[in-house]
Design a protein that fits this description.
By secondary structure, the protein is of the alpha/beta class. Helix content is 22%, strand content 33%. Strand 10 (152-159) and strand 11 (164-167) form a beta hairpin. The longest helix has 13 residues, at 174-186.
Length: 187
Amino acid sequence: YNILYLAFYKNDKINLSLEYNIKTEYINNNDKINKIKFNKYDLVILGSGMEGKLPTASKLHKSIPDLYNKLLKDSNIKILGICYGMQLLSHYYYNHDVVKLNNRNKLIMNINLDQRYSIVKNIPNMKVQFNHKYYCPYITSGIISSIKFNNVVIPSMIKYTNNHYGVQFHFLNKYDLGKIIKNIIIS
């Protein structure tokens, strides 16, 4: 598969097996976005962000507006948003700011996955790591998984459209990530 990983800080990398052809692009301005031919990729992964280096995902469109205008508006491009990337997708689809948690969620948890969604076919659950202080409480549909953290329900895996998905966590197992990627690409 031909995959593009959009990193929002220079040291952001995705840990995948060598069977994937992954190109990483560090994105910090519109000039980079305008040079990328997104439709030549089987999947675009929106990176996980980094504390203190970026505006909240709700504000990123102000500094990189073509991320919305060129990438997210194209419903034919398959996208997986991871952590910050999911928050970015949520802002795009719901037009609400992310909400700050009282305490940062830094847990390793086993999550259950709604088997009605094809991207988690034959993956009933997985062990993942959360590391975020913002979440998207306004998501109302396409919820594949959610968790409860300090009495707050947090959507943790979302289907926005047939081609756009988001996860509020980081994958602990490359095998799980690989299955999700393959399921998105072949769906």
